[in-house]
Amino acid sequence: EAGVTQFPSHSVIEKGQTVTLRCDPISGHDNLYWYRRVMGKEIKFLLHFVKESKQDESGMPNNRFLAERTGGTYSTLKVQPAELEDSGVYFCASSLTRTGSTEAFFGQGTRLTVV
Amino acid sequence: AQSVTQLDSHVSVSEGTPVLLRCNYSSSYSPSLFWYVQHPNKGLQLLLKYTSAATLVKGINGFEAEFKKSETSFHLTKPSAHMSDAAEYFCVVSDRGFKTIFGAGTRLFVKA
Fold first, then answer.
1. Under an 8 Å CB criterion, which residues of A touch B?
2. A40-87, pLDDT tens digit by residue?
3. Residue B38 and residue B45 in contact, taking contact as beta carbons nearer than 8 Å
4. Cβ–Cβ gap A106/B43 under 8 Å
């Protein structure tokens, strides 16, 4: 069974450009989460989808970030325009039920560098 | 409100000696607690989880953790470290509101 897959694994872009990160969850997992780890900081929750609906986007830093999950399958996270402080590792996770008591499976992350 | 504190940013042990990674949490409700591990260039992998069943939880690769409510702790231990255990470890708390909070991480170094 394929795990959570994230594309690309690395991305280097210039300040002001747009970047789109993609996450393919485990098939059948309705719950999809995005997290971010800025260098030297904790892993922070960004948002949570249940199928195609945004259940909780309280962690999204600002309106330069847009997450979508059309059709309730894969998800994209777009940063437009990117700023230097957006650099970090973006993790995606999926789970069958909400992560109150069940395991979330994580992807390997996308390392974003804004120069 | 919930929070999680990993008391050591780095831990260094010799191969074959015990491992102790410390985690304290704060939660308004009965929390679920997890330990995840991240090896270089890999995703986060679940080591073990506590969800209000047995307080001593056994995980993969010989790791275990004990939930101590009186001390609000969930320390991760392993009797004998192996070189392959070198990685970064995250303590995670999740309450019934399903907010997930990560600790800052503890980097484990294993010396030959």
1. 3-4, 33, 35, 41-45, 48, 56, 91, 93, 98-101, 103-109
2. 788 999 999 999 999 989 999 999 999 999 888 999 999 999 999 999
3. yes
4. yes
